Amino acid sequence: MLQRYLPILGWLKTYNRDTLTSDLVAALIVTVMLIPQSLAYALLAGLPAEVGLYASILPLVAYALFGTSRTLAVGPVAVVSLMTAAAVGNLSLPDSEAYLAAAVALAFISGLLLIAMGVLRLGLIANFLSHPVISAFITASGLIIAASQLKHLLGVDAGGDNLLQILLALGNRIDEANLPTLLIGAGAVIFLFWVRSRLKPLLVRAGLRPRLADLLAKAGPVLAMAVTTLVTAGAGLTEQGVRVVGEVPQGLPGLGLPPLDAELWQQLFVSALLISLVGFVESVSVAQTLAAKRRQRICPNQELIGLGSANIASSVSGGFPVTGGFSRSVVNFDAGAETPAAGAFTAVGIALVTLLLTPLIEFLPKATLAATIIVAVLSLVDFGALKRTWSYSRSDFTAMLATLVLTLVEGVEVGIIAGVGLSLLLYLYRTSKPHSALVGKLPGSEHFRNIDRHAVETDPRILTLRVDESLYFANARFLEDRIEALIANNPSVEHLVLMCPAVNLIDASALESLEAINQRLSDSGVRFHLSEVKGPVMDALRHSSLLDELTGQVFLSQYDAWEALRREAASAAVTGTPEATPVPHREQSPAS
Amino acid sequence: MLQRYLPILGWLKTYNRDTLTSDLVAALIVTVMLIPQSLAYALLAGLPAEVGLYASILPLVAYALFGTSRTLAVGPVAVVSLMTAAAVGNLSLPDSEAYLAAAVALAFISGLLLIAMGVLRLGLIANFLSHPVISAFITASGLIIAASQLKHLLGVDAGGDNLLQILLALGNRIDEANLPTLLIGAGAVIFLFWVRSRLKPLLVRAGLRPRLADLLAKAGPVLAMAVTTLVTAGAGLTEQGVRVVGEVPQGLPGLGLPPLDAELWQQLFVSALLISLVGFVESVSVAQTLAAKRRQRICPNQELIGLGSANIASSVSGGFPVTGGFSRSVVNFDAGAETPAAGAFTAVGIALVTLLLTPLIEFLPKATLAATIIVAVLSLVDFGALKRTWSYSRSDFTAMLATLVLTLVEGVEVGIIAGVGLSLLLYLYRTSKPHSALVGKLPGSEHFRNIDRHAVETDPRILTLRVDESLYFANARFLEDRIEALIANNPSVEHLVLMCPAVNLIDASALESLEAINQRLSDSGVRFHLSEVKGPVMDALRHSSLLDELTGQVFLSQYDAWEALRREAASAAVTGTPEATPVPHREQSPAS
């Protein structure tokens, strides 16, 4: 029990010198990668650079204690940072102090929500975010983030909540662009793209092992930071208008609770919920992918607690919302991390940087950080997913396109809420018109198939309708309409059989519809039968009065139904009594 | 085409003297029944009594032109009148003139929405209202309506938006009760209950035919009106505090458009949508039940147009929202109505009453109308449905109880919106944890059953998982978690087969989950197979890359999968190569 809530008790028992070495190497590499990312994502969230470092210390320790993934690397990530900027930016706060306090409170609320969902085992709430919606949302976020960073490359002031606003604001200010800033920024972008695509093959050709070459290439952003900082400081470029990070307070963050302001919490609640869900979904899919590679397991509900405590830890140490990051987790995994201790060691690395090296980043140009962000987020943009989804399912594509467009045009929160709502509506729409077919017997077999697709035997006195969907409120009326039409168009019918092999559920609405259908068919002189009802569905029906009221029978198989009703209809035709004597209900044996 | 939008063109062709006689008799009986109802429901909606008459003339003509039910009787009904009172009451309008104007506008907006839904063939929106939610909503509405009428029985002023408020307000004013009013009201209630339960058997015993006795009993409210009006007028009870309907303008209503006030329309929009949906659902289920008794059909999308034009007609003639009424449609049917012309004749009847008889209702006590309402709505209260639903499905019961409690405590709009939201969430929750089972082969057969329920053959190298639900975004993660756990707990597994006979849909989210599962299984050295995939699902999968990437095969039947994989695993064990050479994909033939 204790181990379930504190997974560290599981892996700590087998910790040894080998694991320690692996974890230390991975931690060193992730630290180098995390420095520019944490600074850059703080900038993206509209916060001072050091807040990014604060969000990369205690959260990693908390996750190491409570998380279930061996290799997930948590910290500030691009999409959550953008959502933080949108959430806090909406509040129109008086100054940057209030802005920071709100971001810190957002991490706290988000942490509480995640822990609450974990304790209540509500991880399934994240199911509401369908893959197409998440994918479109991330693509749109990537585009907005990249656009929002262009101002730093140009060295101008321009903002906006959506893509159009951002681009228009940039267009208005483009003549104020600062040339040295642009040179640094464009240079960094080109260098980082080159590192990403060309450096690794070059290093491999120079004789390095591919994995080492790959990891070295990840240090590109740090190199860009170092070079541009040196150039800026050396050439005194700040006097020519190059904006830099500026003086950063040295030392570790103080601990404390975020402002407990009821109105602020209320205003941030929905944003915190969205950030929690998006962060959780992203994090869990990375963690699951990496765990599977080593036949390990993660526990989604405990992951909620791990990510929740990471956010609480971030908040009490003056940081902003965090979650598991895709690229840095992959690096952590590739670098050989074996346990969450690697995350704790990374935390020590970032803490040392915060204590000792912050004076070095005073002259770090914001343009370099913007370049880091742009290169990182453009890999999130995936228009191919739109194309793949279009060819697979129009309905999913619709939800995807709506999420993409609304996120770009109306902003992140409207985009994701509309996407979730639309995907629910479309699912209900799909299931409200289920596939159904009149079936007949394939000659010489006991199989029943669609009369429109196969040459099958039928009987004008017996109609068999197969519905390929669970029966529930969204399609209960469909069934009533379908059967009403069938009976009106087939005046010679005496028996209607509903064939249920694909019916996994009959809810109370559908039950009432079936009772109404039974009653209406009885009024029309037609008997109503069921066939191939599944075990669990039959178990539920036994708690209703449908089986008592049913004018017909429940048949184990459709073939049984066909044989029995054919005999009955034939004998009724001979004796001239169209209504045969009621047959006692025969129920299907409980099948699993 | 024209006949689809004007169903009157269909039945008018065969209209003859017999049909005319039947329709005239039915119209006479429904007119007598409709007079007290229309006055009473106007009172319930907080409107002058004559507005109820106006809402019972043109709407009936419009429905006769555009409706598809032969016997539905439209007009003011209890639940919609309550919803009208709630919607217009929320606006805190300055005077009763503005209140009336808002009610008239509400009918217009509701009519436009219904027609729009009909033209766009969106009748399925009504599917969102599940039977348990509607049933609980109507029970709660019945209780609120009955409670809200008690003030008229007592002759005091007391109001409130929910049951508690109403009862508290009554409690505070009970010492102001007016004795003559109470005597009239209580007398009417007792008389009407007696008529409802005892009069018919008495008449039958006196020699009348049961159907005639039944129809005569329906005239009870008119008799109560006549007697109490005579007593009140004769004994001058108005001077003793008995409140009466008062002077009613004589003559037909003038025609005109409702106020085209954008702000008002916006405020009424959600209420109009809810009223439209509730009214439509109620009306369609009555119409469908009655149509089935004569093997007739109604067309739900054309019904939307019929009810929509009835509401527009009500609005332009100064009336409030209307829909098909349950009890009066049954009376219309039982009285022998054969075509919608019966409705048009009823309209003529009510028009004559409005022209000639309104002076007679000046001294009609409001207490008598309240008694009519109370006796009518208590038949809507159905606590038995709660019990039946409890024993059938806990999930549906939860939605039902929440709707009931929230409607009583928070009012009609909150109640129904919460009920709809909750029933959606509960459905997603149910399907997000679908029934699934590991299956094995029943010895000596080709059937595969749950290994926990049956003594079946299994193979430690082959796991077969059957999922009894469509795979979509709400349960995609469930599947990933389930398979992750299976593989982690069964280290000797080499093949995983997903058995899909109950999978009616695989959406884009589930497709990505299957791709991820395939990839993760491949990383763990396990091959992933599908079996018994349905034709339409297979058709869709062919538009994806899953079939190309799949490490295993798609088998037509689970038995094929078992035989092939057993052979393969056995030969791999002999030759010592655990990974057999890839087998070309074999796909299922398209089944309907």
UniProtKB/TrEMBL annotation, chains A, B:
Source species of the chain: Marinobacterium nitratireducens
UniProt cross-references to InterPro entries, sorted A to Z: SLC26A/SulP_dom, SLC26A/SulP_fam, STAS_dom, STAS_dom_sf
Membrane-protein topology: Multi-pass membrane protein
An annotated GO cellular component: membrane
PANTHER family xref list: SULFATE TRANSPORTER
Protein name: Sodium-independent anion transporter
Chief location category: membrane
Intracellular or extracellular location(s): Membrane
Record lineage: Bacteria, Pseudomonadati, Pseudomonadota, Gammaproteobacteria, Oceanospirillales
Region (Disordered): 573-592
Membrane spanning residue stretches: 20-39, 45-66, 73-93, 99-120, 132-150, 177-195, 215-237, 268-292, 304-322, 342-361, 368-386, 398-428
Keywords, in A-Z order: Membrane, Transmembrane, Transmembrane helix
A biological-process GO annotation: transmembrane transport
A Pfam short name: Sulfate_transp
